Amino acid sequence: xxxxxxxxxxxxxxxxxxxxxxxxxxxxxxxxxxxxxxxxxxxxxxxxxxxxxxxxxxxxxxxxxxxxxxxxxxxxxxxxxxxxxxxxxxxxxxxxxxxxxxxxxxxxxxxxxxxxxxxxxxxxxxxxxxxxxxxxxxxxxxxxxxxxxxxxxxxxxxxxxxxxxxxxxxxxxxxxxxxxxxxxxxxxxxxxxxxxxxxxxxxxxxxxxxxxxxxxxxxxxxxxxxxxxxxxxxxxxxxxxxxxxxxxxxxxxxxxxxxxxxxxxxxxxxxxxxxxxxxxxxxxxxxxxxxxxxxxxxxxxxxxxxxxxxxxxxxxxxxxxxxxxxxxxxxxxxxxxxxxxxxxxxxxxxxxxxxxxxxxxxxxxxxxxxxxxxxxxxxxxxxxxxxxxxxxxxxxxxxxxxxxxxxxxxxxxxxxxxxxxxxxxxxxxxxxxxxxxxxxxxxxxxxxxxxxxxx
Amino acid sequence: xxxxxxxxxxxxxxxxxxxxxxxxxxxxxxxxxxxxxxxxxxxxxxxxxxxxxxxxxxxxxxxxxxxxxxxxxxxxxxxxxxxxxxxxxxxxxxxxxxxxxxxxxxxxxxxxxxxxxxxxxxxxxxxxxxxxxxxxxxxxxxxxxxxxxxxxxxxxxxxxxxxxxxxxxxxxxxxxxxxxxxxxxxxxxxxxxxxxxxxxxxxxxxxxxxxxxxxxxxxxxxxxxxxxxxxxxxxxxxxxxxxxxxxxxxxxxxxxxxxxxxxxxxxxxxxxxxxxxxxxxxxxxxxxxxxxxxxxxxxxxxxxxxxxxxxxxxxxxxxxxxxxxxxxxxxxxxxxxxxxxxxxxxxxxxxxxxxxxxxxxxxxxxxxxxxxxxxxxxxxxxxxxxxxxxxxxxxxxxxxxxxxxxxxxxxxxxxxxxxxxxxxxxxxxxxxxxxxxxxxxxxxxxxxxxxxxxx
Lengths: 455, 455
Hints:
six-stranded mixed beta sheet, four-stranded antiparallel beta sheet, metal-binding (chains A, B)
């Protein structure tokens, strides 16, 4: 631990500078106009892996954005850790809500503000620096492989193909991912489950052209009104999702499991005041921790139709659209839910409109075992670095790759995340605490040490 | 009639060229970035009034866009016709749906395609040319005054002030407006009523920032979902507007009046196929003609919230918005309805969101008498020009000025419109038939002739 602390202390400024350089690439995978920036971010990651001492570093082309691979095989008899992360980021808009430019990292009271600061540039880069540390101090205890992709925020469309085509190269004993949150530095935690995702876009079409709302209003169905009615019908009075068969495969937790889950510290008053809301909302009969961790959800991520510019336009729009995503829990199947939603949405559309449902992407839910060598190694590492045993939690987010790894490589994943729920992931003013960044760099080598010892 | 036809025949091309020049000004009153274009359009109108022989032509400044005034007083003992029109137009978006540029007028099979072709540049300009015709052929039968404004599409905010301040100058015997539609050249009609308008914008706010839908989804109310539920609740199962007191002041027509109204030719099959819809929608118990003419309506003119760009973003938005307008019928009061809507919308908002309602603009409904000299003059003019007596109809649109004239100047209005419902008012590919343009120029002098004779 002393070696680690000394090395981090001696290199703090450079560790920050390198991350800032990475954060300056607007590597927004969703928007084609950033294609080159995404590519440049990949090249930068590759360069840094080489500098840190990785071998066979390659920026692997895919049908979409490239995947960066690198490895260090010290001894084939030692266990191998496969590190996964993503260098792409969410779109930064609404830009006007950022206090400082999203791609010009800025430090305010100990926090790095930038798109991707936490999700996931700041988190995966800890592994690059931890690897450098182990390499430079000759403490590398496991073989290590890196796979850093550029399409996580758009559904990892091409990762499956890559993994299937590179099973040999990706062969390992465990997958280590830092792309989740812990409760706080005082209450370190480890996520033991992730929700799956089903993301669709719906289009409701009424008349074949925009109409004058005075001439046709009242006689022709308004697709914006109808879309509103359709969306309103997707949750019932108890805020349960109103799609036939939606809950069929949901695994209900035992009272014991629910009790354990709810022991994680949670202050509803702080939670509400942080969000500036007067009341919480959600599925009746479940706590906030359960609603965000073990229950499936349906959210409207975007809605638009008609005239949305300045001033007033008395138009009856031809079309209205919405982006809708569902978070899934074990054992829901992303493809099955996508099909259920499409079938249901089309079935409830009245005959005075036509609806089109287009799936965006999905991912399977996953649960990680708490009795594995890898989990125990992570537990010991965090306990030593934080002086506290981590609390097992269930995360609300989705990392489709987790189930992909299990299915294709037969590998379990450890979700050792150092972010915070308050890091504004996917929101303006995304941040990552500098303390968490360095704490992560200190913890990771300990994971490798204990994973080697326990294996 | 021969004099008229001869003069029109001899000047057709110039009449078209001048209108095209007027249509090339993107005089969009709603969008500040077109301020200068609006101004230039006003100057052009003034210039053309002078060319046609009007006196005291002036581009009168207002707090917003200017009002063009001009007059020709031939004999104070003769009746005076006040012509009202507007040179401003609706925004042209969605631009991609225009087959030819909105501000580059193009003729396709006898129709002029351009924003404002019918609403209202093409229609008010007929009066300028009809005035020129009467002037040049020495057939001017009435004194004539022009008031052409530039804010009709944004609620005529400054017209009231102007009218109040210029009662002397605007003194007349009747107001003549061409800003409405007739059934067809084969079935000429005269509108005897107009709906009023109440236009508001609503904002629903949930959390104080955009959130990650995986981390917070299911536990925090989504303002887009809540807005959808609120909008869905504004119409009941019979598609009646679900706002307490909304129908209190609505004047129900007698069965006789309804019967007369429904005698206007209407083919539901043609209507639906023109709009590309399988079924009609509307308030139960009323025909399409009634739904668009004598019944109040509520339409969503625009809705937006969350991520509406390309691709997918798993965000739980902080805010969602909608532009909502209501068409009002006699004796509903625009201000009262605006207040009722605001009060109701705020009252139904659940405590996990906050809502803000901002009124845009409004206008009072109006009915024009069919037993007046002016109406009979219009009837005779149309009968002579079209060879058919016009059918009295009730228009769905709103021209707030009509009630303003009645209240401030004590003047009745004649709505002698030559447009068609199919002219794509407020829509892409707005058009105006060249035949209607010239027919209007022929009909207007006959109105002046008969109005003078009958007075």
